[in-house]
Amino acid sequence: MEGLVLCWIGEREAQAGLIETVRAHVGAELRVAVETGFEPERPGEAWDARRRQYETGRILKWLESRHVGAAKVLGLTDVDLFIPILTFVFGEAQLGGRAAVVSTARLAPGNGARAERVLAERLRKEALHELGHAYGLVHCGNLGCVMGRSPGVTEIDSKGPSFCMDCRLLYDEALRHAR
Ligand SMILES: [Zn+2]
Ligand SMILES: [Zn+2]
Fold first, then answer.
1. What is the Å distance from ligand 2's center to 60 Cα?
2. Is 130 labeled as catalytic in the residue annotation?
3. Ligand located closest to 170 CA
4. pLDDT over 70 (residue 1)
5. Is the pLDDT of residue 178 over 90?
6. How far apart are CA 66 and CA 48, in angstroms?
7. Is the pTM above the cut of 0.90?
8. How close is the Cα of 81 to the center of ligand 2, in Å?
């Protein structure tokens, strides 16, 4: 099996710098090789015309079917995401599954250089958080842990970019079993 594949599946053009910062961060934290894959298709079937948002469950299934050889696949997008019970989500992953998705849609604090930095930082955290779920990690109550719940950007901003010691141990364990 290949390692972790990261691909852009957004509506607008991919921002190379943003994708690279996510790739470097998750690669360093998860200590796996991350390959940036080109994805020419878009998960059109995940569009919900009534809600005018994309349903993450369908995006995850689509990602899995598009990247059958990847151990894990992370889709990065700029469209607004939802799961049926919530108004919106920043991202989602199947617990212990192969696919994860994260969107910039609700992470951007506006325009300008500072906004770009904040967006990149939030996206790195949420990407690692969702991949953590894909590796079987659940939400963590330890202060500053990236696996902490983040219903809003305030919670994202107040947590750190990495796993706490407990989550790190669980992750190492999960990785050992995956090999
Ligand atoms: Zn979560
Ligand atoms: Zn933790």
1. 24
2. yes
3. 2
4. no
5. no
6. 20
7. yes
8. 25
Counting residues of the chain whose pLDDT is more than 90, the rounded percentage is 90
Distance, in Å, from the CA atom of 164 to the CA atom of 168, rounded to the nearest integer, reads 6
The pLDDT tens digits of the residues spanning 119-135 come to 999 999 999 999 999 99
Q: How far apart are CA 22 and CA 149, in angstroms?
A: 19
Beta carbons of 119 and 104 less than 8 angstroms apart: yes
What three-state secondary structure class fits 15? coil
**CA 42 – ligand 1 centroid, Å:** 24
CB 39 within 8 A of CB 66: yes
Residue recorded with tokens 């809003």:
152
97: tokens are 């599954």
Ligand 1: centre distance to CA 17 (Å): 25
Catalytic residue among 121, 126, 130, 155: 130
The DSSP secondary-structure symbol of 45 reads: G
Task: Check if the beta carbon of residue 54 is closer than 8 Å to that of residue 41.
Answer: no
Token pair, residue 93, equals 């992953």
If you average pLDDT over residues 35-54, what whole number do you get?
A: 95
Burial of 166 (0-12, 13-18, 19+ CB in 10 A): middle
